[in-house]
Write a structure and sequence with these properties.
Blueprint lengths: L5 H10 L7 H13 L2 H17 L1 E2 L6 E2 L5 H4 L4 E8 L2 H10 L4 E5 L17 H10 L4 E4 L5 H14 L5 E4 L15 H9 L5
Parallel strand pairs: 3-4, 3-5, 5-6
Antiparallel strand pairs: 1-2
Helix pairs in contact: 1-2
Amino acid sequence: MSHYPPSLIRLIRNLSKLPGIGEKTAERLALHLLRAPAQEVQHLAESMMHLKERIRLCSSCFALSDQAECDICRNPARDRGLVCVVEQPSDLISIEKSGAFNGVYHVLGGVLSPMNAIGPDDLRIKELIKRLESQTVREVILATGTSVEGDSTAAYIAQLLSTFSLKVTRIASGVPIGGDLKYVDQVTLRRALETRHDI
């Protein structure tokens, strides 16, 4: 890489810091940007600066937004009596893409992880409780991941919410649609059997 000019080397190094981008991919991206029209590079640079200047957390659900409240929280057609608790904004996006949910969200900002010194005070659990105290909610869906930490977080929140007069549910997990049982791991299969339901 030493045969490139210093400004190009600096760009390659900066691009290679992005997740999933190795040095070879960073080099290809940098060379593409070098060949691209100046206006295209300018638009890319402006969009990155706007991202840092404008994106914030929604004051209600803590999703990513470029306004005080996100589009979902501002939408009067959403069912505010149904709150889906997720770990990260990316989980919210995944659920939204499914088109199966018309309620609102609450983004925790992670999961409980004693090994990483992440306790209840490091997540937005207090904000969830405050929200439930001030709003009329009939059901909270705990949609944290199915890892040990995700399960522990869901169990912890469910225990906290046991004093509220609302329904607390956990997303189902198990065998994927179209999945062949012989390829499903034992933990997933066990969970599918444990969470079986009537048909």
